[in-house]
Write a structure and sequence with these properties.
Elements (H helix, E strand, L loop, with lengths): L32 E2 L9 E2 L3 E9 L1 E8 L3 E4 L1 E3 L6 E9 L5 E11 L5 E3 L3 E5 L8 E6 L5 E2 L2 E9 L4 E8 L5 E2 L1 E3 L2 E7 L6 E11 L4 E3 L3 E5 L15 E4 L1 H9 L2 H11 L11 E5 L8 H4 L1 H13 L3 E6 L15 H16 L9 E4 L15 H20 L4 E7 L11 E3 L2 E3 L1 H8 L2 E5 L11 H14 L6 E6 L19 H15 L5 E7 L1 H6 L28 E4 L4 E5 L9 E9 L11 E5 L3 E5 L6 E10 L11 E4 L6 E13 L2 E10 L9 E8 L4 E5 L5 E5 L8 E11 L3 E3 L10 E4 L2
Parallel strand pairs: 2-10, 12-20, 21-22, 21-30, 22-23, 23-24, 24-25, 25-28, 28-29, 29-30, 38-44
Antiparallel strand pairs: 1-3, 3-7, 4-5, 4-8, 6-7, 8-9, 8-10, 11-13, 13-17, 14-15, 14-18, 16-17, 18-19, 18-20, 26-27, 31-32, 32-35, 33-34, 33-36, 36-37, 38-39, 39-42, 40-41, 40-43, 43-45
Helix pairs in contact: 5-6, 6-7
């Protein structure tokens, strides 16, 4: 599955390729190369702003990853137009004190998968930003306690400590008293019964910096020590934060979820019974800390309607798979403990039924090259999390999302861990309560089909006595922009075809004792997936909704990123149903009126990157929310920003058309100079949409005309479109906001 790091649009500077007459562009033989050149390993940085820069070759969308916490778009400079050049980002280092780890990632031109630089670490010297640390030194983790318990904590801070507080079972933060180097709180644990408790501490220094301890779990009486009972998870559905925060903060969204999950008639589908709810931090809100009462309300609501709810987490880092690394183990443990502590602080009906862990270590740059080191680090992480579950006394099921090839790839073979040499999948199955295989294929049968790819994990689960512990996941997301082939998703085929294939899966393995059900990835894509693309498409329909959404919260912000991009951020809107998207309108004066012609784009989330603009130009924006029924709320107040300057000239797609014939769709487009209309022999990169998913790379002819065909699609009816993603030429950049014709779709029969 592809979580959550979203694609970021266009390359930020133009690039050039040799002109050719409608010839396919050869794939680069060399892998992308990325460097960080402005710092040496171990360098000391005292300035508030440090320009981080380096080089790239055979890559686009270069991003800077800082401390496994933040990901920043960089500015790319490519004077030769050969998809190689320099990049830079001005990093605010005043927020860091101590070691800071950097890495650069980008999309490889040839594969569209991520490529990485080497990691680099420097030392920032800003004592005012130093986060204090604190540890609970007594009682010990796993201790049995009774009577008055002296909770002893030990802070470590650069700046003077202002206060230390303790929290028990997720309650109020309680003041601890200073006692030498320690701070102590006396907890009366009498009368607590047989229960396992969580103890957390936090320290606040004079500058307001806050440090948090890891959790200590202790028992009163015999403790909790619940048993994990295998549960049927057919069907399950992943719900990521774009949707999960709506469910928590906008109660109307629950009505739509319930209607969709319980529907068994629209496509002849089985009902969804288990929800994997994304609980990560989103738009500055941490639902498990900041909105516990709302989370309890949702989980209780779901339980009342017969659903089971699991907390969906990753690695506690950004990007999430960094949580695999031992050096980021604490972040992974903290995220996991957050769910455990929420459960311990909540009533039975408000608790999560499980945790679905989606860390995906194979996305790391050294998963294959450092085999088996990274694989073992992941297994160590998983083991550490399971140990925290055991310490908490909770019986919630913990499952790991794994790719289908952990029992067949050389990178997952013969992993020597704890004295046993096994497949990666087998070690994970030994450790976790269950697995959810990302068995992403668009066919049930065959050697690469869903059934065969899950058989090894099913049989191994049976051999180790773990019933209902293999959940089989399928993909419905549009994945064509990335490096994966379209054959991993049902997006092109549609819901009716998918359900027919899943019927075959149930027939083949549904009665296997280890089969735990089908999981669908994911809610947002399922809401909009038709029965099949084309004139007869059937879409799922939400419950009747007559009210428009509210206005967005507050006034949007607009910030120029460079000469052709402005970034917008805005507050949440609310609705009596589900919010589908936010519409961003662009105008050339502050009093412009929103209209379809003024639509710059849409976003499911609370931000938007408006690209393809003109340099040194002021743009005005308004934002409105739209619900799933199509009702649009009031537009926001207007905001504006001015783009930067550049010597590059704007080019556009001046014409585009898609036709279907002889079992293929063919796109014909023309790239032109915006000012003169002259054709430009640009390099064109893009992908077919709807029923097709082929990604194409090529070069327009001297007249600016480019032609490409989709994969073979033999169907009596259907729909195929085309979406350019990058257009590059020497001395130009793609001013996509000024394309004269929107990319159409061809629908047949007409």
């Amino acid at each position: 599955m592809h979580r959550s790091v979203q694609r970021l649009g266009l390359c930020l500077m133009t690039m050039v390729l040799p002109a050719g007459a409608l010839l396919p562009m050869p794939k680069a033989e060399a892998a992308a190369v990325l460097t960080i050149d402005s710092l040496q390993e171990g360098a000391v940085v005292t300035s508030d702003i440090k320009r981080i820069e380096g080089t790239y070759a055979g890559a686009y969308n270069v991003q800077l990853v800082v401390n496994g916490e933040r990901i920043f778009d960089t500015h790319m400079v490519d004077p030769d137009g050969d998809e190689s050049g320099t990049w830079y980002y001005d990093l605010d280092t005043s927020a860091y004190h101590g070691e800071v780890e950097l890495a650069v990632r980008a999309a490889d031109v040839a594969t569209r998968y991520n490529a990485w630089s080497d990691f680099l670490r420097f030392r920032a010297v800003h004592p005012q930003a130093s986060a204090p640390e604190i540890e609970v030194v007594a009682p010990a983790d796993g201790a049995a306690v009774s009577g008055t318990v002296q909770i002893r904590t030990e802070p470590d801070a650069v700046k003077p400590v202002q206060r230390v507080q303790v929290r028990i079972d997720g309650g109020q933060w309680l003041e601890a008293a200073k006692s030498g180097k320690q701070y102590v709180y006396a907890w009366n644990a009498s009368g607590q019964g047989d229960r396992t408790h969580s103890i957390e501490a936090r320290v606040i220094d004079r500058n307001g910096n806050i440090g948090r301890s890891l959790t200590t779990y202790v028992d009163t009486g015999a403790g909790s020590h619940e048993t994990t009972v295998p549960a049927d998870q057919d069907r399950s559905m992943w719900i990521w934060e774009n949707a999960s925060y709506n469910l928590i903060l906008n109660p109307g969204s629950r009505t739509v979820l319930d209607a969709m999950a319980s529907d068994t008639t629209t496509f002849g589908q089985d009902a969804v019974t288990t929800l994997y709810l994304g609980v990560g931090v989103y738009d500055g809100i941490d639902m498990l800390e900041d909105e516990r009462d709302r989370v309890r309300s949702f989980v209780s609501w779901a339980h009342d309607r017969g659903y089971r709810v699991q907390a969906l987490i990753a690695g506690g880092t950004n990007p999430p798979y960094f949580g695999t690394y031992a050096r980021y183990r604490e972040q992974a443990v903290r995220e996991f403990e957050k769910v455990l502590n929420y459960n311990l602080a909540s009533a039975d009906g408000e608790r999560f039924d499980g945790i679905n862990l989606d860390t995906e270590p194979y996305s790391l740059p050294d998963f294959h090259t450092s085999y088996p080191d990274v694989q073992i680090q992941y297994l160590d992480m998983l083991e550490a999390l399971m140990q925290r579950k055991q310490a908490s006394g909770l019986g919630l099921a913990v499952g790991a999302a794994i790719p289908r090839w952990y029992d067949s790839s050389a990178s997952a073979a013969s992993i020597d861990w704890h004295g046993a040499v096994k497949w990666m999948s087998q070690h994970i199955q030994d450790t976790a309560d269950y697995i959810s295989i990302m068995d992403y294929r668009d066919q049930a049968e065959g050697s690469v089909g869903i059934i065969q790819q899950a058989q090894g994990e099913l049989d191994y689960a049976l051999s180790i006595g773990k019933p209902k512990s293999v959940v089989v996941g399928v993909e419905t997301k549009d994945i064509a922009d990335g490096g994966d082939p379209e054959t991993i998703s049902f997006n092109e085929e549609g819901r009716a075809y998918m359900e027919a294939e899943l019927d075959e899966v149930y027939a083949a393995i549904g009665s296997h004792p280890a089969f735990g059900g089908i999981a669908l990835h994911h809610y947002d894509s399922l809401l909009l997936l038709p029965s099949a693309w084309g004139p007869g498409a059937v879409y799922w329909q939400p419950p009747a909704d007559t009210q428009a959404p509210t206005a967005i919260g507050g006034t949007p912000t607009a910030t120029a990123f460079d000469y052709q991009r402005i970034d917008l951020a805005y507050g949440r809107a609310y609705d009596d149903g589900e919010l589908k998207e936010y519409r961003i309108y662009r105008g050339d004066s502050p009093d412009f009126l929103p209209s379809p012609e003024r639509l710059a784009g849409t976003s499911r989330g609370l931000g938007f990157k408006d690209t393809g603009l003109l340099p040194d130009t002021v743009y005005y924006y308004k934002v409105a929310a739209v619900d799933l029924a199509g009702h649009e709320g009031p537009a926001s107040a207007v905001v504006s920003a001015r783009t930067a300057v550049t010597e590059l000239k704007p080019m556009i797609v001046s014409d585009i058309d898609v036709v279907y014939a002889a079992s293929k769709a063919t796109v014909t487009l023309r790239v032109s100079d915006l000012a003169t209309g002259a054709g430009i022999p640009a390099s064109v990169h893009g992908r077919f949409t709807a029923m097709a998913g082929r990604f194409v790379d090529g070069t327009a002819g001297a007249s600016g005309t480019y032609v490409a065909s989709s994969e073979t699609i033999s169907a009596a009816s259907g729909e195929i479109g085309f979406a350019p993603t990058r257009i590059l030429a020497a001395g130009y950049y793609w001013a996509s906001a000024y394309d004269t014709k929107e990319a159409p779709a061809t629908v047949w029969p007409s």
